[in-house]
Amino acid sequence: MTNDDREFLPHSSGCFLCGDENVHGVRTSFFVEDGAVRARLSLPAHVNGYKGVAHGGVVAALLDETMGWSATVFGEKHPMYVTAELTVKYVAQVPVGQPVEIVARLVEDRGRVAYAEAELTFEGKACARATGKFMPLSDSATAQVMPYLRFGRCRAFATLFGRNVPG
What does the buried/exposed string (b/e) look like for 136-153 if buried means 16 or more CB atoms within 10 Å of the residue's CB? Predict the structure, then answer.
């Protein structure tokens, strides 16, 4: 699958993780591939916990965001979800400036709670694993989030969220 075939997910310009205009952030793109939500990126040096190693909070945030999108993309009950509980197990250091991948899958959507799991790898080896519980946003809360989302490369998800996207 080429980059052009991937279904990218919406982002907001100021988000710490996906904000393309946030100079202090990570600036990653989340996409759907092979039945999972994924991100492939090299973490910038300014998110280190100590020299050359990503801060654990940034690692947790990436796992959390990827799982939250997996609930939104693959859940059948609600349009958007927020984190209710997050558990992270750190297995190895996550380097900055090197390519890493995060993969998240929805385990189950029970309506009131969705369950997801994720893993961050470097050179094919696990660095961190997470599980999470996600609660659906209400329709009114979802409506408040929508104006902040940008759908640039999102074809199917723009349609899902009722947005028109050129090309």
Answer: bbeeeebeeeeeebbbeb
- Sign of the torsion formed by the C-alpha atoms of 22, 24, 30 and 36: negative
Helix (H, G, I), strand (E, B), or coil: what is residue 58? helix
Question: Which helix (H) or strand (E) element contains residue 17?
Answer: none
Q: Both ends of the chain: CA-CA distance in Å?
A: 19
Q: Is the pLDDT of residue 111 over 50?
A: yes
Q: Nearest-CA neighbor of 72 among 152, 127, 128, 149?
A: 149
What values do phi and psi take at 146, rounded to 5?
Answer: -50, -45
* Alpha helices per DSSP H over 12-113: 56-74
Tokens of 34: 């092979």
Rounded CA separation 39/17 (Å): 11
Helices (H), the chain: 56-74, 139-145, 156-160
List pLDDT tens digits, range 9-52. Answer: 887 878 888 878 888 888 898 999 999 999 999 999 999 999 99
Chain center to CA of 2: 20
Domains of the chain from N-terminus onward: 3-160 (3.10.129.10)
Question: CA 34 to CA 110: how far, in whole Å?
Answer: 23
Could you tell me how far CA 72 lies from the centroid of its own chain?
10
